[in-house]
Amino acid sequence: MKQDMIVILDMGSTENTVLARAIRELGVYSEIHPHDITAAELGRLDNVKGIILNGGENRVVDGQAVEVRPEIYDCKIPVMAADHPTARCEQKLAGLPDKETLKAFVFDECKAETNWNMKNFIEDQVELIRRQVGDRKVLLALSGGVDSSVVAAMLLKAIGQQLTCVHVNHGLMRKNESEGVVEVFKNQLHANLIYVDATERFLGKLDGVSDPEQKRKIIGGEFIRVFEEEARKLDGIEFLGQGTIYPDIIESGTKTAKMVKSHHNVGGLPEDLQFELVEPLKQLFKDEVRACGIELGLPAHMVYRQPFPGPGLGVRCLGAITRDRLEAVRESDAILREEFAAAGLDGKVWQYFTVVPDFKSVGMKNHERSFDYMVIIRAINTVDAMTATVEKVDWEVLEKITNRILAEVGNVNRVCYDMSPKPPATIEFE
Description:
InterPro entries: Class_I_gatase-like, GATASE, GMP_synth_C, GMPS_ATP_PPase_dom, NAD/GMP_synthase, Rossmann-like_a/b/a_fold. It holds the Pfam family NAD_synthase. Pathway: Purine metabolism; GMP biosynthesis; GMP from XMP (L-Gln route): step 1/1. This protein has helices at 16-25, 39-43, 99-109, 118-133, 146-159, 177-188, 199-206, 212-232, 246-251, 286-295, 300-303, 323-342, 395-408; strands spanning 5-11, 29-34, 48-55, 60-61, 64-65, 79-82, 92-93, 137-141, 163-169, 193-197, 237-241, 276-278, 351-355, 360-365, 368-381, 389-390, 412-417. The strands form 4 sheets. The chain has a 5-stranded parallel β-sheet, with helices on one face. Mean pLDDT is 88; it is low at 84-94 and 254-268. The two termini are 37 Å apart. The chain contains 13 helices and 17 strands.
């Protein structure tokens, strides 16, 4: 590893990612680890220069205050507490450290160097991938989104033709999404791409399933099964590449951090997984993934593409998925994207999409009483996907989008705009 590292031990804080990002912004790499990490596990991490104990409102679990293992203090690594006073810590602070205190600890106490940058990160990951994979082959789940595209570029740089990309159309893609993936990756970039249309298979598995966590797990599990089937048709596939990023892992929960939601590529993986995972982006925040993509030479339009969840429109067709509501989500989303592009908002707003709830409301269409679905528009801005603010879209733009949806999407009679930031809401509804 070329990067020095500051390790944050999660002792119940809700601001671990804030602290990690603050350290990375100083030019020093930082990772979050469980509070009960052993000295041996710590020793297997490369270039650890310092440890920060980060306590908070979740410090007490089952009536017991979480504590680090005493052996951690004997590792001859500087320790700082952003916590309540801890007798054995070298520094005692109330709450998160301010920038100057953090700089003093990182640079003066830990002697860390400012060597956290994308060039070094990519070189490290390429080396780690080659070491992990050797002369064997990797199967990559290529959705065409930012994360999987950057992983594809990273793997191509590391192992070239040892990579096979598989794009699965699970029937939950945005309008013309799969066609676009095939055009870009197969026809333009000449990637070794296998296209699988599994629409009926996925929708059959999801029939009648309304619980969001169960939906995510079904979609994640079925993805793996499809890849296993494709791998059996190929020779020597032993690894599964994934676009897992840091927020996926953090939001899926740790021992002292409560789960927000499981992600299909974290909580949805089956226990009998037949592959070893290759996840070179799993310690990056979303903005860092984009910076990595640019450094790898990917075109800007691909790197700054709209984020799209792994379960696709399955978590935007709320409740049990029905084909009529799924089509309403797909068509209304296409209208929203067209009008945002026309208004110049596609480059300004970080993420925007529509959802359709699983209930109807009374309205009037064609001078008759209607009992149809509603479309909810969500448009938010964020840096790292951990917090988000709502975009203040001009009324005229919203009115045009509303009129188009009501006129062009047949089973909808109402359009709403979501004003909820994250937190307390999440970016997606499910």
